[in-house]
Amino acid sequence: MAERNLSCARWRILKPCQSPDPLTKMSDTVLDVEALDVRYGPVRAVRGISFDVARGGITALLGANGAGKSSTLMAIAGVVPVASGRVSLFGQPTTKSAPDAIVRSGVGICPEGRRVFASLSVEENLIVAGTALAPAPVAAARRDEMMQRFPILGERRRQLAGLLSGGEQQMLAVARALMGAPKLLLMDEPSLGLAPQMVDTIFSIIEELQREGISILLVEQNAALALEVASHAVVMANGEIAGQGTPADLAGDTLLKSAYLAA
Amino acid sequence: MDQLLQQLINALSLGGIYAMLALGLAIVFSIIGLINFAHGDIMTFGGYGIFLSMVFGFPPVAALCIGLGAAVVMALAMERTAFRVMRGADVISLLITSFAVSEILKVFFQNGISARPVPISFPAAWSGSYQIGGMTIGVAPTASILVTIISLGCLTFVLRHLAIGMAMRAAAEDFDMLRMLGVRANRVVAAAFAISGLLAGIAAVIWTAQRGSVDPMMGFFPVLKAFIATVLGGLGSLGGAVLGGFVVGTLEVLTQAFLPDALAPYRDAIVLSAVIAVLLVRPDGLLPARTSARS
């Protein structure tokens, strides 16, 4: 996947970007997904779904295991190719952009399974995350900021990331995603495999980030938990959208229950 | 005793060359999964760089620097023209691509320069020797060991302390995750090729300075040994590549020095049997690479 299709931001010096419709530009969505299809060979994991993520809110993407949530997230991130449909971030089309270009346009990614670099120290993980996204002094300042926000990372800065506990690794994964000061954070199953107390900590961090103005798209199997923090929820089943609405809409609905049982 | 020490110096000198070549192979393999069969031709190209700049009248030291630069340029050119378009292909396709690159370059060397060895005349002092405590030690092996130590030291510094080095270690562990942090994939890959080319260039400098000639197959045999070294050390493991290089170099020198004449023709067979024996006990090599095998 070469960097052939960069978002036009990079070429702004050469020629002005095709200015999008002023209404969309001013609109309150940071992410717009239209008729998205993701295929793995003959398997159609995501089937023509459309939804958007509001600026400043937490949007939860819910559904049973295998419903297509992670595939959707990875397609938005450019990690798996979009078979058909459109993805726009901050009003710019990014359907065919490479993941690194998407991240540089203002997206932070916390992937499933945390994926910290186990053989690098905590600090080195943050250094690597900062190199591409900020000039060296800014990156260094952000590193200090992260170690203050997550004191445990400061204490373990020289320790190998592979030796951290699951919850600490999740904090590192969040800190790493924040190194580029993203406007939108994509989080895939942040509670997976963590002790209940740590899950609470991670979710209070998520709420804190939202209060700071970061828009969040949260993929979560633990629907009850996600609905507590979300401002909007999208429920997926078998690669399609089974329904969407506010947590209040969904709470009394049987939709959520059937979506989980359907798979 | 004296002879043993002298052979040890030879072993370190040869092992150092193998270690640098193996390291170049391992750095590239660990990041993009390419076993670069054309790595030997990068070394050969560096050798011809030295030869041609001597022909054009550059002083020997300048010629060596030009040779180094030529190797780096060749490594980067290979990446840009042949391997970048194949990014993400499976190991076999990449391997075959590198065979093709290697064959093309060999044809250019044979037809463009000469199929036979061309001589390079370095100052006589370089092939001299000096005495320490009754021991005769060659200048070239000594220089070779020093250069190896300095190169490995610098590389360790880059990998441990510079951001690009950390990114390369991270890339070896989980390349896709690195891209999800906004790091430009092409830059990290190009840096890996540049370092591997630089190491091959240093190997070319030491090799030609010791042997005084260049031929189209110059890089082939040492890189073959370096392949064995990377497998022995653990494919994709940088520490393993260095260790493997020194082990193979030492085995080779010691078998050459101490094997009875009758067994001499079986030298390579004995070295390779020893490698196989090690791999039977440790199939992942001496120092296996750590990767979080993800698709």
From TrEMBL, chain B:
Localization recorded for this chain is: Cell membrane
GO (cellular component) term, any one: plasma membrane
What is the scientific name of the source organism?
A: Sulfitobacter aestuariivivens
Q: What is its main location?
A: membrane
Keywords assigned by UniProt, alphabetized: Amino-acid transport, Cell inner membrane, Cell membrane, Membrane, Transmembrane, Transmembrane helix, Transport
* Listed Pfam families: BPD_transp_2
Q: What is this protein called?
A: Branched-chain amino acid ABC transporter permease
What highest taxon heads this organism's lineage? Bacteria
GO molecular function annotations of the record? L-isoleucine transmembrane transporter activity; L-leucine transmembrane transporter activity; L-phenylalanine transmembrane transporter activity; L-valine transmembrane transporter activity
Signal sequence span is none
Tell me which InterPro entries the record gives: ABC_transp_permease, BCAA_transport_permease
